[in-house]
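Lab notebook, bench 4. Still working through the backlog of constructs that have no structural model yet. Next entry is a single chain of 413 residues. Request: give me the C-alpha cells for it.
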Amino acid sequence: MRILIVSQYFWPESFRVNELASELVARGHEVTVLTGLPNYPSGKISPDYRKGAKSFQRYGGATIVRVPVIPRGQNRVLLALNYLSFVLFGSTVGVWKLRRERFDVVFAFLVSPITAALPALLVGRLKKAPATIWILDLWPETLAALGVVRSRFIIGCVGSLVSFIYRRSARIFVQSQAFVSSVVRYGGDAAHVCYFPGWAEQVFDRPAVNAGAAPEFSAYAGKFKILFAGNIGDAQDFPAILDAIETLRDRTDIHWIIMGDGRAKSQVVSQVEARGLSGVVSLFGQYPIDRMPSFFAAADALLVSLKAGSIFDLTIPGKVQSYLAAGVPILGMLDGEGARVIEESGAGLVCPAGKGTELARQVLRLIEAPAGTLAEMGGRGRAYAAREFNRERLIDRLEQALLEVVGRESVDR
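Model written out:
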C-alpha cells in the first residue's frame, strides 16, 4: 500500500507513530508522513532540526514532508495558534507538496488536537483515498476536563467539528475500549470503530533490569528512587504529586525524580522550591527514548498519574505500556482504565486520582513489601505487556484493517 500518515508530531519528537511508520515500511509499504516542524514538548523548534533540517527528511525508510507551524510555546494562546497553524499549512502547503503523490489510504495519528484530522480528510478527498484516524485523546471532552475551554458554545462547536471528522472517516481506531461510546455518540459508525491500544516502544524489548542503570542516578544510590518520566502538563496533576512528596519529605531514604518537559514544568520547578522539597526531588530534562531503559533500570518504582475526571477515567496513559514492559513496579495515581490495567496486571500499586496522601501511603507499602515482591511485580507487568500490548500483533491488526478499507473502497469505486 501507498500510505500517507498525517501527524502534527513526528520524529525527532518521541511518539509511537515513529515506530509505526518504520514498521509499515519494513512490511513492504510505501510510507509518506505529513507533519509539522518539531517543537514538542519544549514549545520551541528543535535546535537539532534548525542546525540540519535536511537530515530530518526521512525516518525508518519513510519520506517526511514538513509544513510550517507556529511553535506551541508555553501559554494557551500560542498552543491554540500551534494547532490552527498545522491545520492551515497542512491543508495548503502540505497539499501542494503532495500534489504529485498518489496514496491508497490516509492514516491520521491524533493525540491532541483532533483538528490534525482535517488535512488528512482533505488529502484523502483530493487523492480519492479513504481517510482513517487513530484517536488517543477524546475531544471535546479533554478540552472541558482541563479547563482549556469553558464556554458551552465553543465546546458545542468543537463537538460539531468532531462529528464532522468521525462521519467522514472510513475507520476509527481508539486507544481505549472506553472511547467507543463517545465516538458513537458524536456520529462515528460503531461498525467502523476498532480498539487499537498503544504498545511499548521497541527499546523496551529487553527488560529494564538488563539494560544497565543510568549513571545519572548514581548520586541517589541507596535511596528508594521513584521516577516520573514523560510530559509535564496539567493532565498529570503535579500538585497532587507534590502533596505526596511533601507528606514524605522527612523520609531521606526516598528520592523523587521527574524527567521530561512540558507546559507545566516551570510551575513544578517553582513549587518544588516554594515547598522546600529540593533535597528530595530532582528534575531532569528531556532525554532520547533510547536512553529510557537505562533510567527505568535505575529506578525502584515508576510513577504515572492523571487528574480526576470522567474523561481521564477512559484513558490509558501511553507511558503505562512502556512501564509494564520495563519490568519495574508501577505506582499509579489515577482512576478508570489506567488504574484497571495496573491492577489487573499485578504490576504495582494504585491510589485514586488527586489523592497525594494516598499516593504517599502506597509508596510506603512498596518500600515495606517483603523481599522479592518488587521483582515479582515487574515480572507480572512485563508478561502482561507481552500478552495485551504486543507490538507485532497490534500492527498486524492495523495493517489488516487498512487493507480491508482499501479493498472495500476500491470495490465501491
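Notes after review: The CA atoms of residues 213 and 298 lie 5 Å apart. The domain at 2-199+390-412 is CATH 3.40.50.2000 (Rossmann fold). Flag for follow-up if needed.
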